[in-house]
Amino acid sequence: MATTFHSLPFCSSAPNCTQQPRCLAGIVSCVHQSARSSFAGRSLHLPHLKWTPTKLRSQNARPVMMTVKPKIQFIQGIDEQTIPDVKLTKSRDGTNGMAIFKFDQPSVFDASGDVGDITGFYMIDEEGVLQSVDVSAKFVNGKPAGVEAKYVMRTPKDWDRFMRFMERYSEANGLQFIKK
Questions:
Q1: In degrees, to the nearest 5, what angle opens at C-alpha 63 toward C-alphas 77 and 157?
Q2: CA-closest candidate to residue 106, choices 68, 66, 135, 69
Q3: Using CA atoms, how far apart are residues 151 and 72, in angstroms rounded to an integer?
Q4: Rounded to whole angstroms, what are the CA distances from 103 to 58, 73, 136?
Q5: Dihedral sign, CA of 30, 35, 37, 42?
Q6: Is the separation of the CB atoms in 130 and 162 below 8 Å?
Q7: Domain that holds residue 91
Q8: pTM metric for this prediction
């Protein structure tokens, strides 16, 4: 569906606007008549603007690639500094799977008192955000010791997207894949 914008003349009671461009004279009265307005002011004269087309230089035009360092967050805006152990499971038919992230002594516990509660599990990269709310904390002697987060992949497309994130995240953080 195409959207079209039309400009309508604005009216003002400013006393110095006595001239009305000929091309707008009928439109102004038409707008007032159609709105059944009792407006008795004067039309505002707007000078004609000159448009100077900008030329695109195809030789110098290049796509700009924005890269985002892959990161994990438990509180939006606060990057997790601890590198997790990640275990992957996949169904035999390859249609779904799960990633289990285990963080020992995560830095989110250092910041959570100052900035708020853990709101979820966010994996952020240049393609966007993968998120889960399946997050649990482990406490030892009343003190936080770890966090476990699960990310479920329900389709092959979800699996491929997750693997692209993990490739970027592992490259940025020095992780390696070990198949068991």
A1: 60
A2: 135
A3: 12
A4: 49, 12, 11
A5: negative
A6: yes
A7: 71-163
A8: 0.61
Separation between Cα atoms, residue 157 and residue 149, nearest integer Å = 21
Are 149 and 143 spatial neighbours (Cβ–Cβ below 8 Å)? no
Q: Quick count: other Cβ atoms within 10 Å of Cβ 20?
A: 15
Segment 116-127 mean pLDDT: 92
Residue 134's pLDDT is: 97
102 by Cβ neighbours in 10 Å (0-12 / 13-18 / 19+) ranks as: middle
> Does 137 map to a domain?
yes
- Within-domain flag for 61: no
Q: Are the CB atoms for 105 and 137 separated by under 8 Å? A: no
Domain CATH number, residue 138: 2.40.30.220
Residue 176 tokens read as 């390696």
Using the predicted structure, report yes or no on whether residue 32 has a pLDDT greater than 60: no
